[in-house]
Structure formats: structure tokens, C-alpha cells
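Notebook, bench 3.
Goal today: get a predicted structure for LARG1 glucuronyltransferase from Ptilonorhynchus violaceus so we can plan the truncation constructs. The sequence was checked against the plasmid map this morning, with no discrepancies at the termini. Length recorded as 184 residues. Pasting the sequence as submitted so the record is complete.
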Amino acid sequence: LFVFARKSVIQLDLANTKKALIVPAFETLRYRLSFPKSKAELLSMLDMGTLFTFRYHVWTKGHAPTNFAKWRTATTPYRVEWEADFEPYVVVRKDCPEYDRRFVGFGWNKVAHIMELDAQEYEFTVLPNAYMIHMPHAPSFDITKFRSNKQYRICLKTLKEEFQQDMSRHYGFAALKYLTAENN
């Protein structure tokens, strides 16, 4: 991954362009896994059910725009468009927008960051030979709070609405899609 990502950073001129390089994410439910040494090996594990696209069972739309069906056969980087709740793992320039500090703990940190990148007209480019695998672990304290505490979810909803309003004020008409995406 790191070798391919480093080459992609140079080839795609990340230092001088507004690109967010998407590293497709997968997951396993197994606590022990031999990390695939190639894309072909990863695809075999995916077909056998050893791996899944990231959060396929619980939050499909977070990574769906990556277009995993296209990634399976892609040999060159390809562009994807922002969609509501998109939260891929990305490689970006150091001077990109920072994560919004309102979103700490669990909930909407990556979604808000990707939304901000989109508002600043970053191009989302999927790397065809890069991938990451999320390993199972115990739930974090914050996700446990999110799942069990109604007040936590109400606060997060308020922060999301505040963020979307700020986006609208800062980016004007172009940011209307972020306000309406939540309601569709």
C-alpha cells in the first residue's frame, strides 16, 4: 500500500492539485488474518467471504461511492463524486482543510471532512491497487455512548445541522446540496 500510494502521490501530482486519493477499505470479522499480498489475493478473499467491503453490513453508504465493482477490475485511478454520508479513507495534501473540531469521539468526523473537501472542489480519485483492511476490535467508549445514549445522538444531530449551516454560509449556493442531502 505505502509503495503504491507514494507512487500515486507523485504520478497524480498531489502536491500541486486538489485531489483526495481514496484508499478502498475492507474489513474482516476474523481476529487473525493473513494480510493479502496483492489485489488478486484480496479479491479471492472477498469472493470467499473472508473479507467484506468496509461496513457493508451496517453503513453501506459510507463507502459505496468508492464503487467497489469498478475497483475490482480497475488498473488506473478513477474519479468518483461526493454523495451524502461518504466517508472514505483518503490521502491528501498537508494543507487541506482540517477535521472540524466539533466532531470528536464517534460520529460524522470523516463525513464532515469529506464534505469540506468537496466544497473546496477536491477531486476524489480511487487508487486501483491500494487497499486497507479494518480488523475487528472491541467497541470504543464513544460508539457505545452513541448507541446507548439518546442525548449523545441529539447533540450530534445538532452539531451536524450547525456544520451544514456553516457550510452554507461559507460556500453559498454551491453548498445547498449538503443541506438537502440529509433530507433525501
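The chain has a mean pLDDT of 86. Residues 150-171 form the longest helix (22 residues).
Flagging this for group meeting.
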